[in-house]
Amino acid sequence: xxxxxxxxxxxxxxxxxxxxxxxxxVHQKVLENNIVxxxxxxxxxxxxxxxxxHIKYLGKxxxxxxxxxxxxxxxWFWGLSHRATSRILIYNDKNQYLGNYYLTMINDLPYKLxxxxxxxxxxxxxxxxxxxxxSIDFSKGIPKTIFLKCDSHRGDIYxxxxx
Length: 163
Known about the structure:
Elements: H1 2-19, H2 24-33, E1 39-43, E2 52-62, E3 68-78, E4 83-92, E5 97-103, E6 112-114, E7 117-121, E8 133-137, E9 145-149, E10 155-161
Antiparallel strand pairs: 1-2, 2-3, 3-4, 4-5, 5-10, 6-7, 7-8, 9-10
C-alpha cells in the first residue's frame, strides 16, 4: 500500500512538472486512485505567477436512482494577492465531469462526505455561528442549489453549473 501511494505521488508530481499547470488530468488521477480524505497539493504559489492547487477527494454517493456521484474539493491559488478559486466538483462513476459549485470562500468547502451527505462547518468564518453545521443530501441526486447556513438568519446560496 505504501509503495503504491508513493508511486502515485511521484507520478502526479512528474505530471505537474511536465505540464507546468494543474489541469483536468490531475483531477482524473486523484479520482482513479480513489484515495478518500487525503489532501493533494500540486504546484507552489508564488508572487511571480506560479499557481498552487489543493485537491481532496471526499468519496462517492449512490443515489436512490442508482447513479454514482464522485465528489471532490478543488482550491486553486493564483495571482499576486494569493487569490483562491474554490469549487466542489462532481463526477460520475466513469470519472466524467458533471459540473461544479463555485464557492466564494475557501472556508465554504465541505469537510466530509458521509452516508450521501456533504458536511460544511463555519469553523473558519469569524462572522458566522461556529456551532452550525450544514449538511446537504446528495442521495436523491445533485441539488440545483445548496444553502450554507451562517447563523439563524443568514447564509450563502450556491448553484450547480454543468458548464
